[in-house]
Design brief:
Number of strands: 3
Shape: globular
């Protein structure tokens, strides 16, 4: 096709989750409440960790970063989806679409690496407790956090380097509530089948590498835990259960979206909602319900609030 005769697509149309107006009004209320809960819940976890000196340790520094990444991930897609429920024509500019793709993969890639770092932190704490303060020093913890953000940025930029160069000249309907690579590639004015496979493979490499590292870490941790005392086993299993739950919730949808796509539209949309909204909502709940230190910090925060209110 002669590229000189191609018109440039200036915006895309997002088909959203459904077409029924009554259903969209219901979903508007649900996702508005959901998003506010995500933002407030994750901000609360971050503030709790910052203000309580007993939580100033590598484990909780990593948890605060996880809450921050989750909040960013949800903020990339959910506010746009909520406002689109009020619009008959759900459009997004070409630049806005590209930025959505970038930040989804930036935050997603960073979170994958961050979960590996958190698994490493638990491995050192449980398997090498006497050397924990030396191995997981504050300097090393910050270095690992910088590495997770850097890898996420490089991963997102590698995806964008390909996407922005594709010719878009005709179809512009994205059958989802946000722009994502597998859906946008299909709209390119070229044979995109091979490119789609290569892009999914690129996403699969980082996802499967992180998943294998996580699997190895928790297998070794559980093996070590089984050989320890019952008291230590109970505490370690409680911590590991929370981490493994988060890993499954995060990597499950990612696997079926990028690594092993099912190519069933409504399933893809449900998985996308789970990935961008439900996981960021559940992460603070899982960690606060499973972690004794967080529970104690919440009690102190509540008592401080009650005393402060009583003195006014």
């Amino acid at each position: 096709m002669d590229k000189g005769n191609q018109s440039v697509v200036s915006e895309f149309v997002l088909l959203g989750l459904c077409h029924s107006w009554n259903m969209q009004v219901l979903l508007l209320m649900i996702f508005l409440i959901l998003y506010l809960t995500i933002v407030l819940g994750n901000i609360f976890v971050i503030i709790l960790i910052i203000t309580d000196v007993h939580l100033h340790s590598p484990m909780f520094l990593l948890l605060a970063n996880l809450s921050f990444v989750d909040m960013l991930l949800s903020s990339v897609t959910t506010p746009k989806m909520i406002t689109d429920f009020l619009s008959e024509m759900k459009t997004i500019s070409f630049g806005g679409c590209m930025w959505q793709i970038f930040f989804v993969h930036f935050t997603g890639g960073s979170e994958m690496v961050l979960l590996v770092v958190m698994a490493y932190d638990r491995y050192v704490a449980i398997c090498k407790p006497l050397h924990y303060s030396t191995i997981m020093s504050l300097k090393k913890c910050i270095g690992l956090l910088v590495a997770s953000w850097t890898i996420g940025f490089v991963h997102a930029m590698s995806q964008m380097a390909v996407i922005v160069q594709l010719p878009f000249c005709g179809p512009r309907e994205v059958d989802s509530f946000f722009c994502d690579i597998p859906l946008v590639i299909k709209l390119a004015c070229m044979d995109s089948y091979t490119l789609g496979i290569l892009m999914n493979a690129g996403n699969g490499v980082i996802a499967m590498t992180c998943f294998v590292l996580l699997l190895m870490s928790y297998t070794y941790i559980l093996f070590t835990v089984c050989q320890s005392s019952k008291t230590g086993t109970s505490k370690a299993l409680s911590t590991c259960t929370a981490h493994i739950t988060v890993v499954v919730l995060f990597f499950g949808p990612c696997t079926f979206i990028y690594v092993w796509p099912l190519r069933i539209t409504w399933v893809d949309k449900v998985l996308a909602v789970f990935y961008s909204d439900l996981t960021p909502l559940l992460n603070p709940c899982i960690y606060t319900l499973k972690n004794k230190e967080i529970k104690n910090a919440m009690k102190k925060f509540r008592n401080f609030y009650i005393d402060f209110k009583g003195n006014i």
